[in-house]
Design brief:
DNA Polymerase III, Chain A, domain 2, alpha+beta, 6 helices, 13-stranded antiparallel β-sheet, 3 domains, nine-stranded antiparallel β-sheet
Length: 381
């Protein structure tokens, strides 16, 4: 068979390798999983793919390679990535793979010989075997915002594996993403024109959420993301990037029961001002506790942090009481700060009592298309 040959700009190959490399685990007991698959797609362009058996990322580069019917080959992902990172910018790279388990990579005066493994040994994820997925499209910027606004609340506790991801489901024409770790909860809602009718509720693993978010950061303005979902698999089409992933096999809790309704005690506040105040007074808090006491009054919010080993921190700021009585409540300062970082402008908080969960919501403008809700559990202070 004619040896595989590719000549292309260094930056183009590096960008594809970096994206596909994100799916690869550095520590592998199966050697071929540490490799990237390089092959020609149906149009004769190079496609680079990486996998860990649970998620697969493929990048369609459009870089012409010969011959177009070559079976492909695999190269060590970390080694290839490191080599390409060290090569000079705006240089041309030539890659040639023989049928004898070796590939030659050259760039200027640099020459490398890399061991290959057969493409047929590389495990492919087949997303849609004997199943017809639900398919729909969402503006890339909107879906990126939906993931970002809930991702910080994903649990890292392995015993509750069903919380180790983002729960995505539909309600009518609304696409909803939710994450919680039991201490805080975040929800984002966006209306999609069509395609949600047959979509099952699924839990997208944390790693997949991260890969999709990184790919969304690089798309052009005005682009859309294509999403296909079944009960066991999900795939994302983001420009030239394709991400296919298994889903978490578990039952996400009935999160709607956690979100407090009503809220007879309610205030409006400036998000940036509260975020800055929390950051200042929490400097004195102990790393172990991170508790911040908040006294919500008629016109002022008083924030206090007490550290027995270091001293006290206190600050107040103006707020607007919209209903109810004064409330004194404690929160984890880090959780509060992370939540505030995903809002802007004005927001409201509603609480039934000083021992009840607090519901935070940004004050939506008429042109806001994503509805966000955050819930924080109180701390004893």
């Amino acid at each position: 068979m004619t040896p595989f040959t590719l000549t292309c700009p260094h930056e183009a190959l590096l960008a594809a390798v970096q994206t596909a490399f994100g799916a690869v685990e550095r520590r592998n007991t199966i050697p071929v999983l540490a490799n990237l698959l390089l092959e020609a797609d149906a149009a004769g362009g190079l496609r680079v793919s990486g996998t860990d058996l649970d998620v697969m990322t493929s990048v369609v580069t459009g870089l012409p390679c010969e011959p177009q019917d070559h079976a492909g080959f695999t190269l060590p992902a970390a080694l290839l990535h490191d080599i390409l990172r060290k090569l000079p910018d705006k240089a041309e790279v030539t890659l040639k793979a023989s049928d004898h388990g070796q590939a030659a990579l050259s760039c200027g005066r640099s020459r490398f010989s890399l061991a290959t493994l057969p493409a047929e040994d590389w495990p492919r994820l087949e997303p849609w075997r004997n199943v017809e997925p639900a398919r729909f499209e969402v503006p890339a910027t909107k879906f990126a915002a939906m993931l970002a606004s809930v991702g910080f609340a994903i649990s890292t506790e392995e015993t509750r594996y069903y919380l180790n991801g983002v729960y995505m489901h539909a309600l009518g024409d609304q696409l909803i993403t939710v994450a919680t770790d039991g201490h805080r909860l975040a929800r984002a809602i966006y209306s999609v024109a069509n395609g949600l009718a047959d979509m099952p509720g699924v839990i997208i693993p944390t790693k997949t959420v991260g890969l999709v978010s990184k790919a969304l950061d690089k798309v052009a303005a005005g682009a859309s993301i294509g999403i296909s979902v079944s009960e066991a698999m999900i795939s994302f089409e983001i420009g030239a990037v394709r991400i296919a992933s298994k889903l978490i096999d578990g039952t996400f809790p009935d999160y709607q029961r956690v979100i407090p309704e009503g809220g007879e005690n309610r205030w409006r506040f400036d998000v940036a001002a509260l975020g800055a105040a929390v950051e200042r007074v929490s400097i004195i808090s102990s790393e172990r506790g991170r508790a911040i006491k908040m006294r919500w009054g008629r016109e002022l919010l008083d924030l206090t942090v007490t550290n027995p080993d270091a001293g006290d921190g206190q600050e107040d700021m103006p707020v607007i009481s919209e209903a109810g009585d004064d409330i004194e409540i404690g929160f984890n300062a880090r959780y509060l700060g992370q939540m505030l970082a995903h809002m802007s402008g004005q927001a409201t908080v509603a609480m039934a009592s000083n021992g009840a969960p607090a519901r935070f919501e940004p004050v939506h403008a008429d042109d806001d298309e994503i509805e966000m809700t955050f819930v924080l559990m109180p701390m004893r202070v």
